[in-house]
Amino acid sequence: MSPSDSALFETAAHILDRFQIEIPSWGFANTGTRFGKFVQSAAASTLEEKFNDAAEVHRLTGATPTLALHVLWDLPSGLADVEQVQALERTTGIRAGSINPNLFQDQQYKFGSLCNPSEEIRGSALSHVLDSIEIARHLHARDISLWLADGSNYPGTQSMRRRIEWLEEALRTAHQRLAPDQRLLVEYKPFEPAFYHTDIADWGMSSHLCRTAGPQAFVLVDTGHHYLSQNIEQIVAWLLHLNLLGGFHFNDRRYADDDLTLGSIDPYQVFRIFHELHNPHSKESDGGAAFMIDQSHNLKGKIEAMVQTVATAQELWLKAALIDREQLAVLQQSCDLVAAEELFRGAFWRDVRPLLALWRQSRGLAADPLSALREDGYVERITRERAGRQSTVGSYA
Ligand code: PSV
Ligand code: MN
Fold first, then answer.
1. Where in the sequence is the domain holding 66, given as residue range(s)?
2. 345 CA from centroid of ligand 1 (Å)
């Protein structure tokens, strides 16, 4: 290796060593679309299987030490299930990640959860959130990720103003229950399952709710939760500026919230988002942003898709990290548009895969995690062991 190659390798290694992304427990379970599901024999149907699958992904990528948990699907008995999670943390080496209350599946939530016109239902949704905060505390999980399906389908059928007030009140109460090291992440989504209005439809609404809830509430950006052609990296820049960026749910999309593999449709967009995060102006504010994957594959093999996603995230993160930002700042200042764009695009087109392979080998990982997965027989083994136990546990579709 020439001195400049080894300096580049050292820089890349430093960046990759610190890159971690959380994988979702529901990414290993059988899920589908509203038209049906194609079950996979290798899908996980118990929490133990989900932890085992997560450990396999981490073993191959070295970048996924935590597993996001959905309370209803993974801890259906609430606090009583915490011990089992702790035991699985010990045996697999994977830690519980963000804790996701489930405010959308129970029959009582037909007309909303924290925004339901019924005081009783709002109360029961809030107590589920408070229980989830308690679960997170026991598991030493920093983040409680809140997503509401609340909204309405027809104009005039709900009071949007009253629902804002109910939401403000509920989030303030939830915030009071947080331990000093915990955070409430508030996820927005413009539509689905509600198709006329959604109570937390965009980052502005989410930002306002976080500000009213308290200083430990932050916005969660799910890349699939935007209108088509929306400039997500600009939203990220604003949230960084406001010190309100809590984290991401990464996935890709073509039409709606498609939950496709990260970077499969528009890798340049992920690169542009990552560039904002690497921006030196972000230094103070981006430290705590959680990187999480929110994908559940119905057609691809689940473990294979997860490994592919993590490897893609590593590639794009490294590409964006290697932008010559000092030079870019000079070109931006002098409005040398073409040179600035070429520098930016050049970083995107740079093939960092050889660097990544070197880094993996230097850290005792397989140079090509997808081939290693094919060769190590894990998927074949779980397919045999789990066949015949098709289950839809852990799935909302
Ligand atoms: C809703 O579409 C969402 O993005 C929320 O984050 C849920 O927790 C997750 O999907 C469930 O897959
Ligand atoms: Mn999400």
1. 17-389
2. 32
